Amino acid sequence: MSAIPKAKWGLVKKLYLSGLPMREVALRLNVSLDAVTYVLRRSSVPRRSLKEASRLTFEAKAPSFIIRKSRNVLRHEMELIGAMLYWAEGYKRETASGVDFANSDPDMAALFFCFLRSRYILDERRLYFSVYHYSDQNLAKITRFWSKKLGVSVSVFRHSYKRQDPKTQARKLPYGVLHIRYNDKKLLRDVLSLIESYKRKYVLR
Question: Could you tell me the pTM of the whole model?
Fold first, then answer.
């Protein structure tokens, strides 16, 4: 079917305006992409910008994680702890591509990682760790420390940053700064939403 009967033009407009890409509209109606383009142009339906089309494509995708359904006192405590830790130490800009929690305190980092594990079922391929360290520190040794502390493989550490100026007289962080990263903006959105819920409950009264 290469053309669209005029009786179905309204359906074409409805599907496109609901957020579907033109290609998806064409597939649903079993017509060509050119046919859909023709109907939208003749119907004076404005084309989406590339930015808007990308946003809609992103929103249509399923998240790479699952929020665990079980709820108990410990789970609630971990959610509160994780939200407050990320509020204080997490990267929260809109331009972020996902969660990025950075800290030099081993116990604090382990606690935030425990929060991620307790609230979410994660896609392990999107989870990785990075270390910020000085040039005169042994990255392999630091990585092994964090690997053992968090109970993860050294193979999930990448993109670590080395500061070239060792500043031998300055106080150093013995294990550098650990970044816990998860590459999915929807996970960041959920963590920020959790923060906002606690702000409304305890602060914004």
Answer: 0.75
